[in-house]
Amino acid sequence: xxxxxxxxxxxxxxxxxxxxxxxxxxxxxxxxxxxxxxxxxxxxxxxxxxxxxxxxxxxxxxxxxxxxxxxxxxxxxxxxxxxxxxxxxxxxxxxxxxxxxxxxxxxxxxxxxxxxxxxxxxxxxxxxxxxxxxxxxxxxxxxxxxxxxxxxxxxxxxxxxxxxxxxxxxxxxxxxxxxxxxxxxxxxxxxxxxxxxxxxxxxxxxxxxxxxxxxxxxxxxxxxxxxxxxxxxxxxxxxxxxxxxxxxxxxxxxxxxxxxxxxxxxxxxxxxxxxxxxxxxxxxxxxxxxxxxxxxxxxxxxxxxxxxxxxxxxxxxxxxxxxxxxxxxxxxxxxxxxxxxxxxxxxxxxxxxxxxxxxxxxxxxxxxxxxxxxxxxxxxxxxxxxxxxxxxxxxxxxxxxxxxxxxxxxxxxxxxxxxxxxxxxxxxxxxxxxxxxxxxxxxxxxxxxxxxxxxx
Length: 456
Hints:
The protein folds into three domains: 3-110, NAD(P)-binding Rossmann-like Domain (Rossmann fold, 3-Layer(aba) Sandwich), CATH 3.40.50; 114-313, Mur-like, catalytic domain (UDP-N-acetylmuramoyl-L-alanine:D-glutamate ligase, 3-Layer(aba) Sandwich), CATH 3.40.1190; 322-455, Mur ligase, C-terminal domain (Protein-Tyrosine Phosphatase, Chain A, Alpha-Beta Complex). The chain is globular and about 70 Å long. The N and C termini lie far apart (53 Å). The chain has a six-stranded parallel β-sheet with strand order 7-8-6-9-10-11. The chain is α/β, with parallel strands linked by helices. It contains 17 helices and 20 strands. Strand 15 and strand 16 (330-334) form a beta hairpin.
């Protein structure tokens, strides 16, 4: 789609090119800056605002958007007066007083995903869920690539949606967070899935039902809805949808699991497709992820041969059950991407023997009751760090030995002293990382660097 066509589409479908307009982009993280670059490209004027007083890349932002007003250090209501169109980055709550007031006064809320939807012709696969989003997104991307399709993947994972747009793309694969879903209206996926719903982001949602309702928006305009029948909340989302593909690790479904002759097989419509032993990523949660990816790929016409070949070669994601070192008969595993309790629980269940668990960070208000039960079953020792270490310790109620460290580096040293030969030391924080780190990648990198340093 050429630039003039893009401009015409945006003008017709958003009103952004209708004078007078006052466009404000709220939040100057990765998504906010991608929106700013896009609007500049289609020659629209806008203002920028960020709550942080000290942006590390402020000089570059000012140079890149020299013609735009830029405000930092808060969200004063004065800067929102007269705004007609509002782009709010996923990391910023719509309940911020100035934002809520602006929307109540009639400003139109738009998102980068809306702009993306107005600009592309290729089919889109949309993926959300509390856990497994990135794994399934990259699995499907690999399946399409093995099939010879020109595919691009991103959204909440890696590259922002607007930066994915290119000519001759045969398929887009989007990972979408609940924050992206709550502020988008225009995307019409060829296939969509909610992988699962568990307690997450309870600092942004009043309860899990509200959170689940936001997740369900991914199905609103989908041609095919892929359904995890093992998750009751997901199953309840699409009872009226005409086109569905189901998957399950425990029940009969379009894609399921069957045990025969002592082996476990992934099955499509009753026909065995690939042995579970041929898939390298471990754990029942990754069996579920593989089934979801197979269902999504099938929905857009990817041949089963390519699906199977991609699954055999899939290595998993960095920071997701990634072995970073084997030191003095200890196995050190980086699962920093476990940013909520259910993701940590899935990681713990992937091990046959008890582990030494390193956990902690910002719990985001999550209920820790079920996590505490699984930790008691699967961990011999727990080493805690970060903002909510005490919350996790309280939830455990002395059911397992607990040690504390102010830092992740200190927790690694404690684990080195306490682990015994043959054990796995698992970093699976069950928490967000932003209390001490830039993101979960930095947390995982520091873990791996510390492990390798003490090994040397």
